[in-house]
Design a protein that fits this description.
11 helices; two-stranded antiparallel sheet; alpha+beta; single chain; four-stranded antiparallel beta sheet
């Protein structure tokens, strides 16, 4: 049994390794597209603050690992700092020859592609990790056939019965039990139009999931929509081996599903249908990563079985975090990639960039928004952390 101290140390190690890889891939996206366009890169840093390790490449780029590992950046020539804000004083004094390889003097479409490359790299990585997991264990599905209905539950009130096969929800085809569950979880207290098959005939009903408090896969508190239906215990999981191409297609689809679920939850939070407490930041990521590791380590199974379970969990968890990282960076907040794309959109339409003072004011506002969001997410994380039992 691991102590709380051992858990924290293990969580920190696994988390730092995972998040460093994801950040590296994100920044490598920016760097690779920038270099493809011939833009000069002054520094590629994993982490912020004072460099701990650094290497000067022949291209002139300084590769560094810095003190604070929770982040990273690519500093192009002409940037004032890690946020890629233009250094107006330096840019004003540059010669035409110097301007040739400066990021801020490139066409807006090139700058947009460089900025977009970071989140896209995270989505590509996530698709690859999902694909590896699918290729390794195969495609596992359970038909969306109701095995049991809890008395008095929303499903029972709506007239659903054991043996009913769910075909569609809100007009969207349901292929298996997982798709059905994902649709329900995100729609607590929201009516769902359900099409089902009973005795060979299609029928429809309206089911409004109840909001219930439960635990996630590592024991953290969460709320979700609840139908009150169960899988038939005689219904076996269908496992199908798939090839690498099919796995890549499935991995890409899983990225799309994850983005869709994230978008649905945020939209519901903004409209007051969710309290937003399921959103978390680095503390929750570290907690989930570490708790997953310790839970697997405590299984009474051979080391080879535990290692396989650990690697599979890290593949899926890493893919999910990579999607979240790419999504978060696309938020239209100045200082984030999405904020830069917002400014470039204005420039593309207006034919000229926003005035420097307006951009600087936007970056200051963005910093305040990011700080406020960080505080809110940390409060969520602390509450989440307190709901988990670390012993046993």
């Amino acid at each position: 049994m691991l102590s709380t101290i051992a858990y924290v140390l293990l969580a920190l190690i696994v988390f730092l390794i995972m998040i460093s890889i994801l950040i590296f891939i994100h920044e490598l996206g920016h760097y690779s597209v920038g270099r493809f366009f011939g833009i000069k890169v002054e520094r590629f840093s994993i982490g912020f603050g004072k460099p701990l390790l650094k290497h000067q490449a022949k291209s002139g780029t300084e590769w560094t690992i810095s003190q604070l590992p929770l982040g990273g950046y690519v500093k192009f020539a002409g940037d004032a700092g890690a946020a890629s804000t233009p250094d107006s004083e330096a840019l004003d004094t540059m010669s035409e020859e110097d301007m040739a390889d400066i990021f801020h003097f490139r066409p807006v479409w090139q700058r947009a592609l460089v900025v977009l490359a970071g989140p896209v790299a995270n989505f590509i990585l996530a698709a690859f990790l999902f694909a590896v997991a699918m290729f390794w264990v195969g495609e596992r599905t359970v038909p969306a056939i109701i095995g049991s209905v809890e008395e008095g539950s929303p499903a029972a009130v709506a007239g659903l019965q054991p043996g009913d096969e769910i075909l569609q929800m809100d007009g969207k085809v349901v292929n298996d039990w997982t798709e059905m569950a994902q649709h329900i979880v995100l729609r607590a207290e929201t009516p769902i139009n359900v099409t089902y098959l009973r005795n060979g005939f299609e029928e429809t009903t309206i089911v409004t999931p109840a909001r219930v408090e439960t635990k996630d896969f590592v024991g953290g508190a969460m709320t979700k929509g609840f139908f009150g239906v169960g899988v038939d215990p005689n219904q076996t999981v269908q496992t199908r081996r798939i090839g690498p191409v099919e796995a890549l297609i499935g991995g890409t689809q899983e990225v799309g599903n994850t983005l869709g679920m994230t978008g649905v939850y945020i939209r519901r939070a903004l409209t007051g249908k969710e309290d937003g407490k399921q959103l978390g930041s680095i503390l929750r990521i570290a907690t989930v990563t570490g708790k997953s590791t310790t839970d697997i380590a405590q299984l009474e199974q051979p080391a080879s079985v535990k290692l396989k379970a650990f690697l599979y969990r890290m593949l899926v968890l890493g893919a999910g975090i990579s999607v979240a990282l790419g999504f978060a960076n696309l938020l239209p907040i100045p200082m984030l990639d999405g904020g830069h794309l917002l400014f470039y959109s204005y420039e593309a339409v207006a034919g000229k960039p926003l005035p420097i003072p307006v951009q600087e004011a936007g970056y200051r506002l963005g910093m305040l928004l990011i700080f406020g969001l960080f505080v809110m997410l940390m409060i969520n994380d602390i509450g989440y952390l307190g709901s988990i039992s670390f012993e046993g």
